[in-house]
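Quick note —
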Amino acid sequence: MPHAPPFQTLRLTALSVLCFGCAPDNSSQTAIVRDSAGVLIAENPAPVAGNEWTLQQPAVLEIGRSEGQGPGSDLFGAVAHAIRLSNGHIAVADRHAQEVRVFDEAGDHVLTFGRPGEGPGEFTILWSIAELAGDTVAAIDPLGGRVSLFDAAGVFGRSFPIPRLPGASAPNVVGWLADGTLLIQSLTRSQSQDTRDQSTHLLYAVDRDGEILGTLGEFPGSPLGRNGLSLGFAAGAEFAAGGSLAWVGQSSRFEVAGHDRSGSVRQIVRLDRAPAVVTPEETAEAQAAVERSLEGASGPAVERILATEYASHHPVHGELLADRAGNLWVERYRSHLLEDPGPREWDVFDGEGRLVGYLATPSDFQVTDIGADFVLGFHTDELGVQTVRVHRLLRE
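Predicted structure written out below.
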């Protein structure tokens, strides 16, 4: 199965939006940007206070409900993904119902397409959606191993298989480039997996017929312990697709590289941020959480997990996102091994790699789409009820 995005339910807090630790107002002047043999390199100093971005409250649009009589299109079972279409409508992929629901700009239901199953236009697991050129909506079904294409009216057109590289793990879809190229990441396999000290990711490009165009490269993942599992608090590989670039970061250091479809590096974004030391208290807290989660279970697999080792330093960043304006969003690292990881904090870099903004979003809000003036995602309350929200993005 592909690596699951962090869509798990988190506890509701009183926090709405925080903005602190931001990039300076003159960050674009202090960043050093140079061209080295066709590679645009941006060196950014450590951020200080200033240049806060905020999400306007309340949301300009909220779709969903937590109560009411009977089922309805605005009652979501498990939101997998949500995007804003070019006509302003909001498309929501519901993994529980295995269908895509489209709402207009007022939040009224317009149409629904897709259903559970293995036939044309059906989904085994609806994972994510995207709008491609020609008002085409692409839906990813990793368990079914295919991408399904629908027109603007929700009519199924065709599907193509998600190809798998020989000797590699199940493919994990990263996203789409502007020209319709699909980026896929997978892990290499090895019969001597337990003896390796680091996982390796393969990144490859696929066209809209499911044909592999080429491999962009092999990238180091997480360091492995003696039990063959990733170290707790370990750095790892992060991927995103945006515009014409595939973004790749290895979070042991803050250096994110943009590769073109052939795998050539075209841009490098760096930030002066050192990794924090993992404290004994953090290791103890994480180990205790693992033991609680496995209480009552037994067997070789359980013993293997209990033997997890821990890294000496935290990663310097988390998830990567690319917005429609060509900005790169890099999440500040927060550990899900600890009880309260806190809000999600994002450093934002412009098309030349300059640090231009900072945004903090609540931990119970999962960002799925970013435009020039909006941030779209879904909120999960303490009971697990989900609503899709569109916030106006204020850049100060």
